[in-house]
Amino acid sequence: MQPTHLLNVIIHVGCGIAAMAVGFIILAGAKGTARHRQLGRRFAWLTLGLCASAAAGNVLFRFIPVFAILTVLVLYQFAGGWRAVYTRERGPALVDAAMTACAATFAFALAPIVMLAARADGSTAVVYSSLGALAMVIGYDTCRWWFPAHWHATLWRYEHVYKTVASLFGMLSAASGNLIRVGQPWSQLLPSALGIAIIGWMFWRLWRGQRSAYRAMR
Question: Does 105 lie in the same domain as 168?
Fold first, then answer.
């Protein structure tokens, strides 16, 4: 392994371990606090380092289809979740449109390449599910431009939860694919399924809290 490749791997693994550790601390802790925001900023920088090193690894050293699409998915989801906190009730802005256009461009460019490679190495289940998740988020982000303006005041919290938690479990799925060789592809799909279950539980808590607040105002 070349020294530059080894350095990139070290950066990638270090950022990944640290990002997941910080992410799970955020997930387990109180939301909306100063500590939550501080840890969120650390998670952001670590996620950027993780995705930058993953992109460099795929472009410069070794192209791995499933990790190429996971890199786009994790970065786009996280960036969207981060943006939701800043835009809130204002809804999407031109920056968000540019991000969606970039993600769609990468998805269309990568899809035929990764699907062909996935058929060759047997990773179709993971690649197709990742492409489907990316298409769903891009589709939602496109449709929200036509949402009634007052929807955004409620939806931004759900959007923040889904995109940030999904990016965290996307990292875990990628790590599982690298470290656990038995039971593939299910050992790599399981973290994603767990993430969806946690997102569903958090959505229910958000909905219950908003319903209680609405009833208290009546």
Answer: yes
